[in-house]
Amino acid sequence: MRRTNRIVPTYTGDVSGACSALFELGGMVVIHDPSGCNSTYNTHDETRWYDHDSLIFITGLTERDAILGNDDKLVHDVVEAAHELSPRFVALCNSPIPFISGTDFRAICKLVERQCDVPCFYVRTNAMHDYVTGADNAFVALAERFVVPCERRKSTLNILGATPLDLGIAGSDASLRDFAHRAGFEVTSCWAMGSSLDELVHAAEAEVNLVVSATGLGVARLLRERFGTPYVVGMPVGLPDDGLAEGTWAYELAEALREAVATGECRWPCRDGRGVTQPAGEACQLVGEPVAMGSLACAMGRELGVEGRVVCPLEAASELLAPHDTRVEGEEGVEETLVAARLVVADALYAPVVPSKARLVALPHQAFSGRNGWKTAHDLARLDVRELLA
After folding, report:
1. Cβ-proximal residues to 72 (8 Å cutoff; 6+ apart), any chain
2. What is the pLDDT, as a whole number, of residue 241?
3. Quick one: 1 exposed, middle or buried, by C-beta within 10 A (0-12, 13-18, 19+)?
4. pLDDT per residue as tens digits for the range 283-298
5. Furthest C-alpha separation in the chain
6. Complete domains list, the chain, with CATH
7. Nearest by Cα to 219 from 176, 181, 189, 195
8. Contact by Cβ (8 Å): 313, 237
9. I want to staple 231 with a disulfide (CB 3.0 to 4.6 A). Which of 119, 209, 315, 377 is the partner?
10. pLDDT class for 42, splitting at 50, 70, 90?
11. Residue 111, SS3 per DSSP
12. 294, 277 in Cβ contact below 8 A?
C-alpha cells in the first residue's frame, strides 16, 4: 500500500510537535487521550524532558468517556490542576478518539478559562499528521492569543520554529542567537527555546523574523499579516567559529535579513539560493525537513560546489521547496526518488531504502529517529559541512 512504512519509522506526530513547541513557556499542556500515552508524546520525542520538567498531562480518557462524553470530568480535572499548579496558560490538544467523536474543545477552553481565570486555548491536533503541523498550529494559537501590538525596535528579530525536533540538540538555540548577533540583530524572542512567554508576547517589536524550520512558517505569516513584519526563511548551517565570511551561506542569510528590513519584503534564501536547474544526475539528495535540508544544500554549494536536491517526506508548505525538489509520501516514495542518487544525506534509519550504490551520509533528525540518534546528533548551525561529507 502507498503511504505506509514497513521498514523505516514514521515522523513524530502532531501532538508531540505541539508539546515540543510549548515545552518551555510555563504553560500546562493537556492531551485528551487514554492513560499511558504520555511517554510516547514526550520522553521518546523530547530531549529536554531529561533536563527539566514541563506541565504536560494526559486526561486518562476511558472507553465510557469516549462513547458517552463526560466533558464535565475533563473540565473539572483541568481546572483543579490549574488551581494547584498556577500555569501561565492551559493548552488543550486531542488524540484521534476525541477527534472522531467530535469533542468541542473550543467550548471546553471557554469553560476552563471562566472557572480558573487562566488563559486557555485549543491546539488543533488529531495524531493523523506529522510534527510540523502540530508545532505550527501551536505557535499560531499562541501568537493569536498572546502577541500584542508594539512599537518596532531597530535591529531586532524573532527566531521562529526552533525546537529540538529540527535543531538537533537541546541548547542549539544559542547558536542561532550567536548568528543573529553576528548579523547585527538583537533577538527579541525565540519560538520556542530559551525564551519566556513574556518575550514572545512582545514579538511584534522585531523588525524581521527568521524562520529556521517549517514549524515557524505559520506564525511568520500571522505576524506578517497582523504587524507587517517581513520574514526570511533559512537556517544558518555551517556557522563559522568567528565572524561571517563573505561568500558563505551564513553571510548570505545575514544579507537576506538586512534586505528584508530595508525593503519590507520576505525572502526565501534556502529555496531561491539553489537555482532552478536539476542537479546533474541527481547526484546528491537530502532527505528531511525542507528548511534545514535546503539550507544545508546551500551551504554545500557554497563550501564544496556540490548541488543537492531536497526530498521532503513531511507536510511542510510547498513554498519551501525549490522547483527541482521533491515531495514524497511513505517509504516507497522515498525509495523511488533515491534510486538514481549517488550521495544521500539523511537520518541513518533511512539506510534500508537507500540504493546500495549510493553513499549514505548519516545526519540524525530528532523528529525521525528520536533517542536512537542522540549520541551522534549535531547542532545544525555549527555543522561543519566539509567534515560531514569527508
Report:
1. none
2. 78
3. exposed
4. 789 999 999 999 999 9
5. 64
6. 14-144 (3.40.50.1980), 147-271 (3.40.50.1980), 274-389 (3.40.50.1980)
7. 189
8. no
9. 209
10. low
11. helix
12. no
* CB of 109 closer than 8 Å to CB of 92: yes
The region, left, alpha or beta by phi > 0 then psi within -120 to 50, assigned to residue 60 is: left
Of 97 and 168, more confident: 97
In the block, which residue shows the cell 534545514?
Answer: 292
3-state secondary structure at position 310 = strand
User: Which residue's entry shows cell 557554497?
Assistant: 302
Alpha-carbon span 308 to 88, nearest angstrom: 44
Spatial distance between the Cα atoms of 255 and 184, rounded to a whole number of angstroms = 10
Averaged confidence pLDDT in the chain: 89
> Are residues 312 and 357 in contact, defined by beta-carbon separation less than 8 angstroms?
no
Cα torsion angle, 170, 176, 181, 187, sign = negative
Helix, strand, or coil here: 210? strand
Q: Report which DSSP code applies to 7.
A: S
For residue 258, give the C-alpha cell: 538586512
Per-residue pLDDT for 96 more than 80? Answer: yes
136 within 8 A of 214, measured Cβ to Cβ: yes
Q: What strand order describes the sheet that includes 208-211?
A: 186-191, 156-160, 208-211, 231-233
Of 51, 19, 270, which is closest to residue 165 (Cα–Cα)? 19
Which positions ≥6 away from 114 have C-beta within 8 Å? none
Instruction: List beta partners, residue 55.
Output: 28
Higher pLDDT, 93 or 53: 93
Unique residue bearing C-alpha cell 476511558: 62
User: In angstroms, rounded to a whole number, what is the distance separating the alpha carbons of residues 4 and 180?
Assistant: 40
DSSP character at residue 339 = T
Beta bridge partners of 232: 210, 267
More confident residue, 107 or 280: 107
Provide the phi-psi class of 185: left if phi over 0, else alpha when psi is between -120 and 50, else beta.
beta
* 197 CA to centre of own chain: 18
